[in-house]
Design brief:
22% helix; HotDog_dom_sf (chains A, B, C, D); homotetramer; thiolester hydrolase activity (chains A, B, C, D); 2 helices; two-stranded antiparallel ribbon; Thioestr_dom (chains A, B, C, D); alpha+beta
Chain lengths: 139, 139, 139, 139
């Protein structure tokens, strides 16, 4: 199954549909059933001790899976997250961006599920992992 | 097991430790192993279609369980979330605050787990549910 | 929304559709959006140390939510679990049956989600909690 | 960090500690922070329609992560599962064994977390994914 939206199309969609958060995210790569999304970490994402906040990590994983799905099926702004499980494994490095590596495990007619590994750019050990399921509205 | 921190103590802790987000949250009630936390919904929490964003709901549940634990064991700013599962069930009402009803299911020496139901104020049907586990640092 | 299947109808369904496991389970109560299911604990459910095995607890929660859904929508043997999160909180008492208290949080056209608290009969503290989502096939 | 238990040591541990289930499982491979465990599917694991039951898949993932942890830290029969999230993605092939590919994401002093992909032997598409966290007792 080929890509329906390439990186340029996803970039444009992000700016148009999510103007509040588009500037925080950079799509680093997109291919069939996989996508890399980077959170440009700034003051607003930090918590006491200099760590990236849980909601910021959740949001990165959530947007990453969403864009990976749209890359395959095209722009449907109404796909909604139905479930997320997330494990926080290590403290992220505060002075580094956070990279989400997304892999779609299922892209069904009604439900899509993606796995995400998050790590600080330049570090191997994952700081978190997440799985998200989206309900896909009829085309 | 009696409360170690009452509502006034938790209010003060929130302002001191989380100045970035303290104004978004109101502690509506606290008792043994239970707490009600309200998200004062404003423009920054909304997404296209007027719905409250996923990260905002995650953050509400996360802070709610954290405060419920601190109410029991006292202020330990370094307790960290290790795991969260969250199910998004219905679209929240955009023009209403979001209420998290937290119940601690376990308060162990090393791990604490809390359940959360989220609903729009004045509406019965839950918009989300979440369970969060925290690792508790040695006293 | 009234019940579509009462306790007698669910009992019969369980025996007919799940002969391998029907004898392990007793439906203790059923009402709108809620059900109590008991696991009759025997040797086969135990693990070293006399505790009830994780798969046995998972199965109890899974069947409990399934029956709670069927009680509302009628017999559809093809509803399938899409997601489960489960937290193991305390060691169950080996010499006691395990009771699952199920509450449906959402019963949509395509997805249904139920929450479960598990505890040893006669003990208050929960040994586990779980949330399960089922995909419902078209009627 | 080298392996503390090799395949032969894990095989022996499984037989000794879990005689009830040891014959159902085959360790196909073990290396640092990774393990492949196979469920020898038989009648007892099947459900109506010929699919492998949810509890059987949960049990496979649970034992797989447990053995992957023990391979690293040595035999500690008292490590306990604290949390599992599992997504059921596709119907497994009933006539084929089920393979769990386990990868440890974190091996801390108190908590260890592993990711699992399950697929029917000879098929690429995953039938389920799971993440499990274990609490590790003091050495």
């Amino acid at each position: 199954m080929p890509l329906t939206m390439d990186k340029a199309a996803l970039d444009a969609f992000l700016v148009e549909q999510f103007p509040q958060v588009a500037e925080e995210f950079v799509i680093d790569a997109v291919e069939e059933n996989a996508l890399k999304l980077r959170l440009v970490v700034s003051e607003r994402h930090l918590r006491p001790g200099g760590t990236v906040s849980g909601p910021a990590m959740f949001g990165l994983a959530d947007v990453g899976v969403y864009l990976a799905i749209l890359a395959m099926i095209g722009p449907r702004a109404l796909a909604v997250t139905t479930n997320c499980s997330i494990d926080f494994l290590r403290k992220p490095a505060a002075e580094r961006d956070l990279l989400a590596e997304v892999r779609l495990l299922k892209l069904g007619r009604l439900l899509a599920t993606g796995d995400v590994l998050l790590h600080s750019v330049g570090r191997d050990a994952p700081v978190a992992r997440a799985t998200l399921t989206y309900a896909i509205p009829p085309a």
